[in-house]
UniProtKB/TrEMBL annotation:
GO terms for molecular function: alkanesulfonate monooxygenase activity. It comes from Amycolatopsis balhimycina DSM 5908. Keywords: Flavoprotein, FMN, Monooxygenase, Oxidoreductase. This is LLM class flavin-dependent oxidoreductase. Gene3D superfamilies: Luciferase-like domain. Residues 15-230 form the Luciferase-like domain. The keyword Flavoprotein applies. It comes from the Bacteria. Pfam families: Bac_luciferase (PF00296). GO terms for biological process: alkanesulfonate catabolic process. PANTHER family: ALKANESULFONATE MONOOXYGENASE, ALKANESULFONATE MONOOXYGENASE-RELATED.
């Protein structure tokens, strides 16, 4: 099982200049991938910017978005942006997407929450068309350079429609930021949807956990702030923050037992020393 570390792009009032150095240190420490967390209506750094910065600061680590709120973007613009990040990285991007939930994240006129699921189903075809290099906008030119690849898609959320979308269009499923014991049922649902869609093999399964090894109280407070207004889910996520070496080791072991291919440990602050603290525990 591979181990990744999140970028602190959605820590409240993050020092954006930390992100390239964070990615570089994560690569040097031996993490397999770095990832983003996605929101618009929050004082953080946009996923696309953070991933592009990480791509430029690294040579080896994979890049992952967990998760990008794809229906909040016009599809063709999103597809081109993502293709550019993947190209800059030399093909290291895996795109984690979901339909989103909070209305304040949908800020573009005509791209609200009401029909976001239907837009996602339509937009997936547009992404494929753009990445295939088909002519764009009625003219003779494609939107992306020759050699652009089909970027691997991982889907989040847990309802039946999202699971079907994952099985039909994706390579796998990424769970929410909950304890591994709660993710097991979602992983089973993803496997079932995969089989029902007639897919061979197994879906890629990715687990997520928050950690705080430095300032634990601040870390928990930052997570609570990010998930404010999420009802009961807020208590689940905050209660699941790993704050000791034993808790982190246990979370990794549980996800491994569930069959996760990769686990991302997301930071709760932009303290660069958290990278080495975590590496000392899990690598």
């Amino acid at each position: 099982m591979k181990l990744g570390i999140g970028l602190p792009n959605q820590v409240r009032d993050v020092d954006a200049s930390v992100i390239p150095e964070w990615a570089s240190r994560a690569e040097q420490a031996g993490f397999g991938s770095v990832s983003t967390v996605g929101r618009l209506a929050y004082p953080g750094v946009m996923d696309t910017v953070a991933l592009a910065a990480a791509a430029g600061a690294t040579k080896r680590v994979g890049l992952f978005s967990n998760i990008m709120l794809a229906p909040s973007w016009p599809a063709a613009l999103f597809a081109k942006e993502i293709a550019g990040i993947d190209g800059v990285s030399g093909g290291r991007l895996t795109l984690g997407v979901g339909v989103g939930l909070r209305p304040d994240d949908f800020v573009v006129d005509g791209f609200g929450t009401g029909d976001r699921g239907r837009r996602m189903d339509r937009d997936l075809q547009i992404y494929r068309s753009v990445w295939n290099g088909e002519s764009f906008g009625g003219g003779p030119n494609p939107a992306v350079p020759a050699g652009t690849r089909q970027i691997p898609l991982i889907f989040g959320a847990g309802n039946a429609r999202a699971m079907r979308r994952m099985a039909e269009h994706g390579e796998g499923y990424v769970g929410p930021s909950v304890p591994a014991s709660m993710a097991g049922m979602l992983f089973d649902n993803a496997r079932a949807a995969w089989r029902e869609a007639g897919r061979d093999g197994e879906p890629r399964l990715i687990g997520i956990a928050y950690f705080a090894l430095g300032d634990v109280d601040k870390g928990r407070a930052n997570v609570a702030d990010y998930y404010a207004g999420s009802g009961e889910f807020l208590d689940i996520v905050v209660g699941g923050v790993c704050t000791t070496t034993e808790e982190i080791a246990a979370a990794v072991k549980e996800y491994e037992a569930l069959g996760a291919e990769e686990v991302f440990l997301n930071p709760t602050s932009d303290d660069l020393d958290e990278i080495s603290r975590l590496a000392d525990v899990v690598l």
